[in-house]
Design brief:
There is one protein chain. Helix 7 packs antiparallel against helix 8. The protein starts with a helix and ends in a 24-residue tail after the last helix. The strands form 23 sheets. It has a four-stranded mixed beta sheet with strand order 1-7-6-3. The protein has a four-stranded mixed beta sheet with strand order 8-14-13-10, with no helix packed on it. Strands 16-23-22-19 form a four-stranded mixed beta sheet, with no helix packed on it. It has 15 helices and 71 strands. The protein is 15% helix and 34% strand. Residues 1-27 form the signal peptide. Residues 76-132, 133-241, 242-346, 355-452, 449-510, 682-789, 790-898, 899-1003, 1004-1142 form the Cadherin domain. The chain crosses the membrane at residues 525-547, 652-679, 1157-1179. It is found in: Cell membrane.
Length: 1276
């Protein structure tokens, strides 16, 4: 509607102007003036050009005006009529690169009104020198670049225009480059660098040249830039280690993180090709767990536990590789030094215990072996026993010692000896170990008739010492005592009933008596067992029924695992066993002997107690491979090592009476009796060889034959193998056959790694007499490992410019096998570009080099894969392969190319910051660093640089400052795209600013007659006004009007000028003054979306609501978009003075809403609180009606109830007394948690720990150390 009114009024004014023309003369005048002229410089004479008198200029109030009231760079001299320079004019600041540069002014004359346009063209002078975007232009050019290759240079920019702009370029004289000049599409000029002579990095690594840009002005001006050329080396150098072999000594037990050594390799190349990375190329699995290497620094660091006894030396290969795959290797040898960290170890190899009191001085009691894993002085050991004992240590072969008697023994004076053997090494500080050996002195064997019988101390054989006479008692009762070697020594006894008769058939009553006794005992046992089982069964049934009845009548009494145990009840799975000795029962045997049976074998008959159940953990029955009958052996509680050391002696002592009675007197007397002889040494050493991975049980050799012994000689002389460290024994002896056999899998690589000779050493120990033989077993290598490369893929980056014949060392393959089973050769897959050459390194290994036979062409093939195989010399032949992936690198022979030479874009003025204007894009056919394009402004005015920025990576041009169409409506920017090596290209970006109606019209009062005579005729000019709007188009069209009911009107003049004239006679007596309001409205569209203006779209009617509520939403342009809202209250009225309660109304509405919310919240909280109180009271009432036994996990403890997790055991139970607790409860405490206070008995034992472990033994000691007997719980 506004536009329509504006059009009608505009047409009316135009018609009026044509019909009633004013006396206005319009003329246009043009002047030229050079920039940078001083003030008062005369441009021209206005009076002369207008052909008026100079005095008339003052009379008609001549003045110079600008359209936008901006700075006036020229003015008029009213005295002379000259148009002069008022302010210094800088063409570049005013117009930039715009041609031509014109300033528009208006010459204003009054009485009558005249307006003359003055066009002032600013002429350029050569006041600016050419400038390069950067003072330094960097290029990276490979020495392999070919002659004739061109490199575009940054274009110089001159703010002057025309002949004052850049005209030519010149390059400092040099032997490698020349310069060529080219024209751009917009008339500018740029230069290219041309390579005329090949570069040589070895002669000159970089070159600096001066490039000069010269303009065509007078005087001539120039600008310079330095061209810095870095000559890149072709990757023709491999990393070189500072040493081929690094040697270092490292003490054992070095903490993890300790630096061992730092290897260093240098590469003569630069950039990525000179960056060296390190890694292990050849390292054993064991060393890989102990050491790591820093890929960047080459520092070798400890990562595991270093043990000299485990490994004394480590060898590893280090691989240094540059970024393109060229590599070299070096060796690191780490010697581990010994630290005295292992105390000596004393091993009891043999012990005669007990020894008879009539033993001669020098009698050998035992043999011990002393070992120390350390070396050198740390391994030197001194052994001794405490003084004041009739024993001493006699050194034997190597690290063996014999414990012998020094004086006569007397059992009646001293029946037991505790001999402490101390071993001390020679380290600093010295370490020592002690072992206590308990020896018992045995008396002569006593029987009913002394001198009639004797028993073997070790074999248990019972023999007659003389003929049985008729006067001898035909019934003999012998008590046999058996004692073990444990600490403390444990013993038991058995009774042997002997009946001497010439004929066993004549004593039938003995068998009957034995049968009757046995049968009577068996019947008693059966009755006891039947009664026990029946009682247990009935008790079990009764308990089950009782539990079911109790569960129906009352809630659970036991909760959370608590156990209630009656006082007279033993827990299940246990039995009461009475006894005082180690063995819980007496073992009785019957024997039938004739009068001539002194030389016959004695055999056991069935025991009276075949089915006796021994106490748990006291005796156990085991089946031995070498003996048919089952043997009862002691299951002691000593340490595992001591049990193993003493197992043979303990078994022999325990089984002595059994074996004697089983195998007879005479035969075992000759085989088992231990004869102590003088110790002597056998100096014979044995050597064998065996291939690795030989099956277990395979025969290596016959030791008995090699030592000149009988087949069973090893068995009788108790032959055994010992190792220095008591480690894993991969070999064993078969004493029955005298053979040396494989006992475990042998892996030479695991045992010896890369050592050329792998030998296992053993000591063969023979007793009676003591002999020591050294056995060396050489492990022969078999071809059981294939060659392996450190990596499955070898990557090489080779430029297409690389010359033929260039060599590329490859990673060396590793074969765990040695000698002829190691790597012998390499083979390469057939191809047209590469061959290979095999070389030997210093340690006997082999590596190969890749040799370029034909030049590469990236355009034909970007990459290629070759298969390299490493072959060993074993049988069968084994091989390993690796893939060589060759990436062909492109030479930097392509410049970035823009998708468009000129980018055109438009953007609204007042656009928010970070608005994307346009995105430029350039493509580079090169790859890698040479293909990475970077964008930057190459030519941009200072004003534009404050408004726009460009992303160097993406090429996005964004708004960074306020854009005002009225300030400038067009920007021209030069963009440069540059690759990693400096090659660049340019494009132009034209940005047009779109106008928005963001400026309101401005009214300027140019002239006024404040005092008007009342007799002024209608049409008298009162004032002249000028209307200006900075917008364009419809936004700039202005409609002017004054209020009605005044005797004045507006008459449009030229352009945007209006005259205020009278329309009728004036009468001062009626009205002496007038307030004339001039309203100017433009023809633009409101931009409420952007400025937030709220306008009415139609007239307000009386039917419209006088109160309007508007909700306004404000949204930004971010990602994601964010918004907020506000509420606007409008009250429509003809007079605001009549509505003083507007603020109160708004406050009351807001207050009413707040009150509603508060009421709702108060009602909700009150309802929730009352409901909670009702629920709590209801729960309390319900709980009072229920039984108070167990409630929500609480424990109600009656007087005869035991606390949770405890059991009461009276008499023979695990707990020795009742455990009582006091607690204080209130009447309402049935819902509270029950907590035990401190017990009367501090050492309370939980029942679940007492009753659940089937191996628990009930023992304790009183203050004097006595151990009273308590019933033992035995698991059935």
């Amino acid at each position: 509607m506004d536009n329509r009114r504006f059009s009608v009024l505009f047409c009316t004014c135009f018609v009026a102007l044509v019909i009633f023309p004013l006396k206005i003369v319009c003329a246009d005048w043009s002047y030229n003036v050079p920039e940078e002229m001083k003030r008062h410089y005369v441009i021209g004479n206005v009076a002369k050009d207008l052909r008026i008198d100079v005095k008339e200029l003052s009379a008609r109030k001549a003045r110079i005006d600008t359209e936008d009231n901006s700075i006036r760079y020229c003015d008029i001299n009213l005295n002379s009529g000259d148009l002069t320079v008022a302010e210094t004019i800088d063409r570049e600041e005013l117009c930039g690169s715009q041609i031509p540069c014109i300033l528009n002014y208006e010459l204003f004359l009054e009485n009558p009104l005249e307006v003359h346009r003055i066009f002032l063209e600013i002429q350029d002078i050569n006041d600016n020198a050419p400038r390069f975007p950067n003072e330094r232009i960097n290029f990276e050019i490979r020495e392999s670049a070919v002659k004739g290759q061109r490199f575009r240079l940054d274009e110089a920019h001159d703010s002057d225009i025309g002949h004052n702009a850049v005209k030519s370029y010149s390059l400092q004289k040099n032997e490698h480059f020349a310069v060529a000049i080219h024209d751009t599409m917009d008339g500018g000029k740029y230069a290219e660098l041309i390579l005329e002579k090949e570069l040589d990095r070895e002669q000159q690594k970089d070159i600096d040249m001066i490039l000069t840009a010269t303009d065509g002005g007078t005087p001539q001006r120039s600008g310079t830039a330095v061209i810095h050329i870095t000559v890149l080396d072709a990757n023709d150098n491999v990393p070189v280690f500072s040493q081929s072999v690094y040697k270092v000594t490292l003490p054992e037990n070095t903490p993890p993180g300790t630096s061992v050594i730092t290897v260093s390799a240098t590469d003569a190349d630069e950039g990525p090709n000179g960056e060296v990375s390190y890694e292990f190329s050849k390292i054993s699995d064991k060393a890989a767990k102990l050491f790591s290497i820093d890929k960047i620094t080459g520092q070798v660091v400890v990562t595991g536990e270093i043990d000299y006894e485990n490994e004394k030396k480590y060898e590893m290969g280090i691989h240094a590789q540059d970024a393109s795959g060229l590599s070299s290797t070096a060796k690191v040898i780490i010697d581990i030094s010994d630290v005295n960290d292992n105390p000596p170890r004393i091993i009891l190899k043999s012990l005669n215990n007990p020894i008879p009191e009539n033993s001669m001085p020098g009698t050998e009691v035992g043999i011990i072996n002393v070992q120390d894993k350390d070396s050198g002085e740390n391994r030197q050991i001194r052994c001794s026993v405490q003084p004041n004992v009739p024993f001493r240590l006699n050194p034997s072969v190597k690290n063996y010692f014999s414990l012998v008697t020094t004086n006569a023994l007397d059992r009646e004076k001293e029946s037991d000896y505790n001999i402490t053997v101390t071993a001390t090494d020679g380290g600093s500080p010295p370490l020592s170990t002690s072992m206590t050996i308990h020896l018992s002195i045995s008396d002569i064997v006593k029987s009913t008739d002394p001198g009639l019988f004797s028993i073997g101390l070790h074999s248990g054989e019972i023999r007659t010492q003389r003929d049985i006479s008729e006067a001898e008692n035909m019934k003999q009762n012998l008590i046999i005592s058996v004692k073990d070697n444990g600490q403390p020594s444990l013993s038991t006894t058995c009774a042997v009933n002997l009946l001497i008769s010439d004929n066993l058939s004549e004593v039938p009553e003995l068998k009957d008596m034995t049968y009757e006794e046995s049968n009577s005992k068996l019947t008693s046992y059966l009755i006891i067992a039947l009664v026990s089982v029946s009682t247990f069964f009935l008790t079990f049934i009764t308990l089950i029924l009782s539990l079911k009845v109790c569960r129906r009548r009352k809630p659970r009494l036991l909760f959370d695992g608590a156990v209630a145990v009656p006082s007279a009840y033993l827990p299940p799975n246990y039995a009461d066993v009475d006894g005082t000795g180690t063995l819980r029962s007496t073992y009785n045997y019957d024997a039938y002997l004739t009068t001539g049976s002194r030389t016959s074998d004695f055999k056991f008959v069935r025991s009276y107690n075949d089915n006796t159940l021994p106490a748990e953990g006291t005796l156990k029955q085991e089946n031995y491979r070498h003996f048919e009958p089952s043997m009862i052996t002691l299951d002691g509680t000593e340490d595992d090592d001591e049990v193993r050391d003493n197992s043979l002696t303990a078994n022999l002592i325990l089984l002595a009476p059994i074996m004697a009675l089983t195998f007879g007197f005479l035969s075992w007397a000759t085989c088992i009796v231990f004869i102590v002889l003088f110790v002597r040494k056998s100096s014979g050493d044995l050597s064998y060889s065996v291939p690795e991975e030989t099956k277990q049980g395979s025969v290596i050799g016959n030791i008995a034959k090699d030592l000149g012994l009988k087949t069973d000689g090893l068995l009788f002389r108790k032959a055994r193998l010992d190792t220095d460290e008591n480690g894993n024994r991969f070999c064993e002896i078969n004493p029955q056959k005298g053979e040396f056999i494989v006992a475990d899998r042998i892996d030479r690589e695991e045992l010896c790694g890369s050592k050329s000779s792998c030998i296992l050493k053993y000591d063969l120990v023979l007793e009676n007499p003591l002999e020591l033989h050294r056995i060396s077993v050489k492990i022969e290598d078999v071809n059981d490992n294939s060659p392996r490369f450190p990596n499955e893929l070898i990557k090489l980056e080779i430029g297409e410019y690389v010359a033929t014949g260039t060599r590329f060392p490859l990673e060396e393959a590793h074969d765990a096998d040695e000698g002829r089973n190691g790597i012998q050769n390499y083979s390469l897959e057939e191809n047209e570009h590469f061959s290979f050459a095999v070389h030997s390194n210093s340690d006997g290994g082999k590596y190969c080099e890749l040799v370029l036979q034909k030049e590469l062409d990236r355009e034909q093939k970007k990459d290629m894969d070759l298969v390299l195989a490493a072959i060993d010399g074993g049988t069968p032949v084994r091989s390993g392969t690796v893939v060589i992936h060759v990436i062909v690198l492109d030479a930097n022979d392509n410049v970035p190319v823009f998708t468009q030479p000129v980018y055109k874009a438009s953007v609204l003025e007042n656009s928010p910051l970070n608005t994307v204007v346009v995105t430029v894009s350039a493509l580079d056919a090169d790859e890698g660093v040479n293909g990475n394009v970077v964008y930057e402004f190459n030519r941009i005015s200072d004003k534009a640089s404050r408004l726009f920025s460009i992303d160097k990576t993406s090429g996005e041009i964004k708004v960074i400052g306020p854009i005002d169409y009225e300030d400038k409506n067009h920007y021209e920017i030069r963009i440069q795209a540059k690759d990693g090596s400096g090659l660049a290209s340019n494009a132009k970006v034209d940005i047009d600013i779109i106008d928005l109606n963001d400026n309101t019209p401005v009214i300027y009062l140019k002239s006024t007659e404040n005092q008007i005579p009342e007799n002024a005729e209608p049409g008298t000019e009162v004032a002249i006004i000028n209307i200006q709007d900075k917008d364009t188009g419809d936004n700039k069209k202005v409609l002017c009007a004054i209020q009605e009911n005044v005797p004045f009107k507006l008459n449009p003049s030229i352009k945007n000028y209006y005259s205020i004239v009278t329309t009728g006679p004036l009468d001062r007596e009626l009205k002496s003054h007038y307030n004339i309001t001039v309203t100017a409205t433009d023809g633009g569209t409101p931009i409420g979306l952007h400025n937030g203006e709220i306008r009415t779209q139609r007239d307000i009617l009386e039917s419209d609501d006088m109160k309007q509520n508007l909700i306004i939403s404000l949204k930004d342009n971010g990602q994601p978009s964010r918004s907020t809202t506000c509420t606007l209250y409008l009250l429509l009225s003809d007079n605001l003075a009549e509505v003083p309660d507007l603020k109160d109304t708004v406050f009351e509405e807001n207050n009413a809403q707040l009150t509603s919310y508060l009421i709702i919240a108060l009602v909700s909280v009150s309802t929730f609180f009352i409901t909670f109180i009702i629920l709590v009271m209801a729960v309390k009432v319900c709980r009072r009606r229920k039984p108070r036994l167990l409630y929500d996990g609480a424990v109600a403890v009656p007087s005869a109830y035991l606390p949770p997790h405890y059991a009461e055991v009276d008499g023979a139970g695990t707990l020795r007394s009742a455990y009582n607790y006091d607690t204080y409860l209130t009447t309402g405490s049935r819902t509270s948690d029950f907590k035990f206070v401190s017990s009367y008995n501090e050492n309370t034992i939980p029942s679940q720990n007492m009753c659940s472990d089937i191996n628990t033994t009930n023992t304790y000691s009183d203050e004097e150390g006595h151990k009273p007997n308590y019933p033992t719980l035995v698991n059935y």
